[in-house]
Amino acid sequence: MSLPTCVAWRHDPIGKDTDPPTHLALCGGDSDNDGWDDEADCAPYDSSINPGAVDVPNDGIDQNCDGHDLVVGTGVIQVTLLWNNDDDLDLHVTDPGGTRIWYGNTGPTATGGRLDRDDNVFVCGYDSEPGGVENTVWDDGASPLHGTYTVEVYEYHRCAEPANWTVQIRVDGTLVKTENGSGYGRVEFDY
């Protein structure tokens, strides 16, 4: 997608500058006040959908206007990490037997757990999709252990401001826990 090329300038009379400046006009306006011109925004009346939004996986909605919904693995257990910038965050999930799934051990493990999406590896300033998503899943038919699972969020590489993140935990497709944070985080859940 390319940004529109119609930009109109109005020069304020000398000594009559306005605050804020009003000399740049957008092509189609910004109907939903999300900071994206209506000509570039695929949903100009919904501020949660624009080319700068993080695409929430598997919800059937194209939040970032790239033409499709982000799809990640689903199953018996699904742990999804979402964040709002180009930072490289890492999702680590440790099962009750002590097996850790992360970018250094993507699986599948003996119980069927695997990291199916590792995002934002060295993309500071040039990520083609806003934000980041990592996902660990035990597919349908897998045999996850019963007990307490530990989920950790690590900040592997910071581009600028610390990322705000959300961890979503689903069991058999049902959202059972959501945790928000910034920087390092640790969440536990029982299966």
Automatic annotation (TrEMBL):
<dbReference type="Pfam" id="PF11617">
    <property type="entry name" value="Cu-binding_MopE"/>
</dbReference>
<protein>
    <submittedName>
        <fullName>Uncharacterized protein</fullName>
    </submittedName>
</protein>
<dbReference type="InterPro" id="IPR021655">
    <property type="entry name" value="Put_metal-bd"/>
</dbReference>
